[in-house]
């Protein structure tokens, strides 16, 4: 699974997002995902909040990977965001978050959901890439970096 499979283009990338907190950020990500992938905005938002109640998807290092499942999908999809200012996300390391990858998978996509989640997690463990992402405020450039990083990692 490649990043281009999850992010169809720069429209799925948000740069310099200003959010007052976790719910506001999730609402913005959901709004973009709903528009891009023709999803029920309220249902997706509720699913993400349910998942966050189980435990924060803030994985540490200023990174979060909120995720959920929607019956309307046939393949996993995503939205990437870099925040203008870090926000509290109840992360495992208690650090605020400024790099976020929303992942939404089909309802019955157990293995595909886990593969996509693992792929995104591996990508965002690359500290050099994350620092480049943090230094960029252009959606096209962010998208290009993400696609290039995946291709580089896949070739290795």
Largest sheet: 6 strands, mixed
CATH architecture: 3-Layer(aba) Sandwich
Low-confidence stretches: none
Beta content: 15-25%
Count of structural domains: 1
- Find the structural class using helix and strand composition: alpha/beta
CATH T-level topology: Mannitol-specific EII, Chain A
**Helical fraction:** 40-55%
Gyration radius, in Å:
14 Å
Please count the helical segments: 6
Global morphology? globular
Explain this structure.
With 156 residues, the protein is α/β, with parallel strands linked by helices. The protein has one domain: Mannitol-specific EII, Chain A. The protein has helices at 3-6, 22-37, 41-54, 110-124, 127-134, 139-155; strands spanning 13-17, 58-60, 63-64, 67-70, 77-87, 97-106. Strands 1, 2, 3, 4, 5 and 6 form a six-stranded mixed β-sheet that branches. A hairpin with a 2-residue loop joins strand 2 and strand 3. It starts with a helix and ends with a helix. The mean pLDDT is 91.
Précis, in short:
The protein has one domain: Mannitol-specific EII, Chain A. Helix content is 47%, strand content 22%.
Salient structural properties:
single chain, 156 residues, alpha/beta, six-stranded mixed β-sheet, 47% helix
Question: What are the SSEs and their pairings?
Answer:
Elements: H1 3-6, E1 13-17, H2 22-37, H3 41-54, E2 58-60, E3 63-64, E4 67-70, E5 77-87, E6 97-106, H4 110-124, H5 127-134, H6 139-155
Parallel strand pairs: 1-5, 3-6, 4-6
Antiparallel strand pairs: 2-3, 5-6
Helix pairs in contact: 2-3
């Amino acid at each position: 699974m490649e990043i281009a499979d999850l992010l169809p283009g720069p429209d799925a990338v948000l740069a310099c997002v200003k959010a007052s907190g976790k719910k506001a950020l999730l609402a913005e990500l959901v709004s973009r995902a709903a528009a891009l992938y023709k999803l029920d905005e309220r249902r997706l938002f509720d699913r993400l909040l349910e998942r966050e109640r189980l435990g924060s998807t803030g994985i540490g290092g200023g990174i979060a990977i909120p995720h959920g499942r929607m019956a309307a999908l046939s393949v996993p999809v995503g939205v990437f965001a870099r925040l203008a200012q870090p926000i509290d996300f109840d992360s495992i390391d208690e650090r605020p978050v400024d790099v976020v990858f929303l992942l939404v998978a089909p309802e019955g996509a157990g293995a595909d959901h886990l593969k996509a989640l693992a792929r995104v997690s591996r990508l965002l463990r690359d500290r050099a890439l994350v620092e480049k992402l943090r230094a960029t405020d252009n959606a096209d450039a962010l998208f290009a970096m993400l696609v290039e990083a995946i291709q580089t990692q896949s070739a290795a």
